[in-house]
Structures are given as structure tokens and as C-alpha cells.
Design brief:
This protein has 463 residues and is α/β, with parallel strands linked by helices. 48% of the residues lie in helices and 13% in strands. The strands form 4 sheets. Strands 2-1-3-4-5 form a 5-stranded parallel sheet, with helices on both faces.
């Protein structure tokens, strides 16, 4: 491995270089931090050993500038007595470890061996990600259609970078599933994935949820609390239903994305965060921008890469694969085989699925729970047809006139929001009926959190 030693003490540079050369390392030394920075960014180094206190540039500044110039080598800081705080500050900035002067030879070689093993593992993970490609995403995103395969290919390419991604698609198309696949394929996969539904949290609590608060910031703030941006540091944060973010918070989110800093509610100090942000929405944000409901500058900042999930009705080739996947999941949960007859498979493939993949999953779950134990027939799937009507047998029937019940539910309105709310209300009512009124089980059948279910029941409302 190639090592760069940066220290203004010539004697220490020489002795450390001899030690590492004897251990088999390719060593370069530099006493001037500015010259060292030029060498580090123009050459290829695996490790950089840097003193935290130097006359022209301290170690933390060196680390920041090196990372800003794209440097990827692992940094190990060297600190003398009284400079431990600077070494710890460098670790908070991303340094791998630090050595306390004077150090023993075995201490130095052991620290570098650990760093070398970590770097080797990181490279192996990168090779695996490159080799697996869309296959890694395929573990989460089940598909067969050409449109979805092309989408996964694009997701695989963008996953390697920290670029902001905007994921759009109708409710139930699998936006969070795609976001999780991107995280899994990214260099941040060993860190956490955090998701927040911006529409499910009351507006007056959302800022605190995102950015945290200090004690006494508002009534009930009895202690300091970290927000999701801090908790997601080094990982990925999905802002779901970003179109419902209030305008004042949109401005604050834009500032965080631009500066990589957050400030807790009621706080005075800013804190650096390193978070990969993914945003998802079922709303057309470009139209919201034109109406003045969404900031144009935030829209362009989020929409660096746009991934649009087509509705399930536009990709019927995916239905058989999804059915097989969900049937296996249901069999594992229920402890008995779950299979689907060819006639049911044909009917399900030709169904319009207004609730998309989420509706398909819940239909399989319900049929598996309420079925007689044999292969599932068309009658086991209690669904509505493409216009929203019950069809008696449940699947595959497309009535000729057939929109009376849906027209009644929407009051005859053709407004998309009204129609979507009618579909959501109907799905929630069906889930409550299937669960015997158990709201936690109903939320599970719908594939949403209990909090989201309560929010939707209050907003729609559902009886």
C-alpha cells in the first residue's frame, strides 16, 4: 500500500518512513502541508498519516481540503500531548483513527494493518456492487418488464454517487422499495436507511422531526433531541411525499442540501451532516411549482436525477413475477403453501390495479388468509375493477356501464385528487373489514404505518 506522511518534524518523518518501509509499505514524506496536499490529490495513496498541529495548516483543515478535492485515502491523524481534541475533531470530520505521540513501532504497524484491512474490504464491496449491478436491486424490486429493467439499470448507475434523486410515481408503485434498493447498492449501504413521510407528521412537529430541537425550544421540549438528518449521518434519508412539505420548511431544507449543515429548532449552532437525500412524491412537482406551492429552486435541487415508476397497469409483464414473490412471502408468514391457479393468474394479470403493487400485495395477503387452503381461485380475490366497482367474482370483470359506485363516491368529480382519495378511502374500508376493525392489522394489510393510517382516516374520513 502507498502511504503519505505529512509532518513538519523532519526527524519523525524519517524514522516513521523507515519503520513503514521495513513493514513493506511504499512511503512518501512531505513537511509542507500545502505541498503535501498537492501530492495527495495528484497521486494515488491508500493511507495518509497527518500531524494535527503544523505551522502553516492544521490537520483538520488539511483533511477538509483533501476531501473537498476528492481525496479518498484513509486518514490517520498523529497528535502530541494536549492536541487530542484536535485529533477527535478530525475523526468527526471523517478521519479513520489517530496515533498519540510518542508512539511505539508495533502501535503504528497495528493501526495501519487495521486500516489496510478496512480499505481492502471496502474495495471488495465496491467490486461486488459493480459485478452484481441491477441484480442487487432485483433482490428488492421484483420485475420482468423492459421499462422496469431500464429503470433499475439507471438506479444502479446513480446509486454509486451521492447525487440527490427524485423518485415519482402513483401511490403504491414502490417508491420506498426503489429508494431502499438504491441505498443497498450505494457506498453508504453499511450505514442506516431512514425514511420519513412528510404528509404523515403535523406541520408544527415536522421541523423538529427533521432537524431536531434543543431543550426549551417549545412546549414539551424537555431535553435536547437529534433530528432525522443527524440520525441519518453517513447514511441515506428518504423524504417521502416531499410535495406536502410546507413552504417555510422547503426553504430550510434547501439550505441544508446546499450547505450540508443543520440547526436544531431553538438552537444557535449549526452542525455538519453528511446525508444522501432521496425524495419521493406521487404529486407532479412541476405543476406545484407553477402554482407556487413548491419552490422552484428546491425542485431543481432535488431533481438532479429523476426516476419515474410507471403504474402497474402499464407493465402487466411484472404481475406474474410479483404474484410469485408475494405468494412466497405469504406462505412464509402463514406457515402453509400459497399457490395461484392459472385462471386466477390470468385474471390478476388483466386487472387494472388502481392501487398498484401495494394493492396486489394486499390482495394476495387477504386471499391467502381467507382462502380455503387450496390453490387460490379468481373468487378468492375480492377486488374492484378498473373503474372502482366491485365485480362479484372479484377479478377480471370489466362492466360495460360500470362507474356508478365510483361516481357516487367522488360526487361526479374528475379531479385526480378526489378520485385518488376515493380509492384510498375504499382500500382502508376494505382493510378494516378484513381485519375485523383491528387498525394495526389493517395498517399492515395496507402496507403503511399505524400513524399514517390514523392520519388518513382523519383526513378522508373513513368510517
Amino acid at each position: 500500500m502507498r502511504v503519505l506522511i505529512v509532518d513538519d518534524d523532519a526527524g519523525l518523518r524519517q524514522s516513521l518512513a523507515l519503520l513503514l518501509q521495513e513493514a513493506g509499505y511504499d512511503v512518501v514524506t512531505e513537511g509542507d502541508p500545502e505541498q503535501a496536499l498537492q501530492r495527495a490529490t495528484s497521486g494515488t495513496f491508500d493511507l495518509v498519516l497527518c500531524d494535527v498541529r503544523m505551522p502553516k495548516m492544521d490537520g483538520v483543515t488539511f483533511l477538509r481540503r483533501y476531501r473537498a478535492d476528492g481525496g479518498q485515502a484513509l486518514m490517520i491523524m498523529m497528535s502530541a500531548y494536549g492536541s487530542e481534541d484536535s485529533a477527535l475533531a478530525a475523526m468527526r470530520e471523517g478521519a479513520y483513527d489517530y496515533l498519540h505521540k510518542p508512539f511505539r513501532p508495533d502501535e503504528v504497524t497495528m493501526t495501519l494493518k487495521k486500516a489496510e484491512e478496512r480499505e481492502k474490504l471496502r474495495r471488495e464491496v465496491e467490486v461486488l456492487r459493480t459485478t452484481l449491478g441491477a441484480g442487487a436491486a432485483g433482490d428488492l424490486v421484483v420485475c420482468e418488464s423492459r421499462a422496469m429493467r431500464d429503470l433499475l439499470d439507471l438506479a444502479t448507475r446513480v446509486a454509486r454517487h451521492s447525487t440527490t434523486v427524485l423518485i415519482t410515481g402513483e401511490s403504491g408503485t414502490g417508491k420506498e422499495v426503489l429508494a431502499r434498493a438504491i441505498h443497498r447498492m450505494s457506498p453508504r449501504s453499511e450505514q442506516g436507511f431512514t425514511a420519513i413521510n412528510c404528509a404523515a407528521i403535523p406541520e408544527h412537529l415536522l421541523e423538529s422531526e427533521l432537524f431536531g430541537h434543543v431543550r426549551g425550544a417549545f412546549t414539551g421540549a424537555t431535553a435536547d433531541r437529534a433530528g432525522l438528518f443527524e440520525l441519518a449521518h453517513d447514511g441515506t434519508l428518504l423524504l417521502d411525499e416531499i410535495g406536502d412539505l410546507p413552504l417555510d420548511l422547503q426553504a430550510k431544507l434547501l439550505r441544508v442540501l446546499e450547505d450540508n449543515e443543520i440547526r436544531r429548532v431553538g438552537g444557535r449552532e449549526s452542525k455538519k451532516v453528511d446525508v444522501r437525500v432521496l425524495a419521493a412524491t406521487a404529486k407532479p412537482l412541476d405543476a406545484a411549482v407553477e402554482r407556487g406551492e413548491f419552490r422552484a429552486d428546491l425542485y431543481y435541487r432535488l431533481n438532479v436525477v429523476h426516476l419515474h415508476l410507471p403504474p402497474l397497469r402499464e407493465r402487466p409483464d411484472d404481475v406474474p413475477a410479483l404474484l410469485t414473490h408475494f405468494a412466497r412471502q405469504a406462505a412464509t408468514r402463514l406457515g402453509h403453501p400459497v399457490s395461484i391457479t392459472p385462471s386466477a393468474l390470468d385474471a390478476l394479470t388483466h386487472h387494472s390495479w388502481p392501487g398498484n403493487v401495494r394493492e396486489l400485495r394486499n390482495a394476495v395477503e387477504r386471499a391467502a388468509v381467507l382462502g380455503t387452503g387450496g390453490p387460490l381461485e379468481p373468487r378468492d380475490f375480492a377486488l374492484t375493477n378498473g373503474n372502482g366497482n366491485g365485480n362479484g367474482n372479484g377479478v377480471g370483470h370489466h362492466a360495460g356501464d360500470g362507474h356508478g359506485a365510483f361516481t357516487q363516491a367522488t360526487g361526479g368529480s374528475l379531479e385526480l385528487k378526489t378520485q385518488v382519495e376515493a380509492v384510498e378511502r375504499h382500500a382502508i374500508q376494505r382493510a378494516l373489514e378484513a381485519s375485523g376493525g383491528n387498525r394495526r392489522q389493517a395498517a399492515s394489510l395496507l402496507g403503511i404505518s399505524l400513524r399514517t393510517l390514523f392520519y388518513k382516516m382523519r383526513r378522508l374520513p373513513v368510517h
